From TrEMBL:
SUPFAM superfamilies: NAD(P)-binding Rossmann-fold domains
Keywords, in A-Z order: Oxidoreductase
Domain of life: Bacteria
Organism: Candidatus Desantisbacteria bacterium CG2_30_40_21
Protein name as catalogued: Ketoreductase domain-containing protein
Length: 249
């Protein structure tokens, strides 16, 4: 029986690429989406035509009732959940003093609360299985901050703390929890932000942007590792000054 992965925010960008890579690795894949039904179903249909097990399921990750309904659908179809990729997220750049309450709440609710809600929803399932891997997609902005990204940076920093705490709580059930910082990716959104793209390339010690394919391949490989948890993997070659020698208390 193939392993089952849920990928949130999978109708485009990194999420869509992860669907392809997990499917190629013989996983049964849930293409989670919120608004882009057409794109999500196109991705699922294309893979199903090639004999893959794929389902497109709508669920707003910020709403527990919708996430729980998605989990029930997955269990009804496949009986287990082996991997959760918390990829759903949004960004709406603005200076701190110009960020509205609504914008702040929307970003924090989607990026951080959505990740928490999804972890909480699969934690019991994976704990009963005594096996599972949760991978949270964070950002270098969550480590060093970024002008115009106070809300986004706060949400991504929160994901790192959530990752560490969840890893400690779920480790006794053999459930691994890790975070990945993908770097600047040439998704539709990333490619269109010309100024930000050039700045990211300039800050890279390799003068390169991150690769969607390398990132997806790394995440698939990480998901199948059984002895790693509570870690943050940076795939971003921009110098961030993040120390890795903090004492563990």
């Amino acid at each position: 029986m193939s392993k089952v992965v849920i990928i949130t925010g999978a109708s485009r960008g990194l999420g869509a690429r992860l669907v392809q890579y997990f499917s190629d690795a013989q996983f049964s894949v849930v293409v989670n989406y919120n608004k882009n039904k057409t794109k999500a179903e196109e991705i699922a249909q294309r893979l199903m035509e090639n004999g893959r097990e794929v389902k497109a399921i709508k669920a707003d990750v910020s709403k527990p009732c919708e996430v729980n309904a998605m989990i029930d659908m997955v269990l009804s179809s496949w009986g287990r959940i082996d991997v959760l990729i918390n990829n759903a997220g949004m960004v709406n750049d603005n200076l701190l003093i110009k960020t509205s309450d609504n914008s702040w709440q929307e970003i924090i609710t989607t990026n951080l609360s959505g990740t928490f809600i999804c972890i909480q929803a699969v934690a019991e399932v994976m704990s009963k299985q005594c096996d599972g891997h949760i991978i949270n997609i964070s950002s270098i902005s969550g480590i060093r901050g970024q002008k115009g990204q106070s809300a986004y940076a706060a949400s991504k920093a929160g994901i790192l703390g959530l990752t560490m705490s969840a890893a400690k709580e779920l480790g006794e059930y053999n459930v691994r929890v890790n975070a990945v910082l993908p770097g600047y990716l040439l998704t539709d959104m990333g490619a269109s932000a010309v100024k930000a793209k050039e700045q990211a390339k300039k800050m890279s010690v390799l003068h390169k942007l991150s690769s969607l394919d390398e990132t997806a391949s790394f995440i698939v490989n990480l998901s199948q590792m059984t002895g790693i948890s509570g870690q943050v993997f940076s795939l971003d070659s921009r110098v961030c000054g993040w120390r890795t020698d903090f004492p563990i208390r």
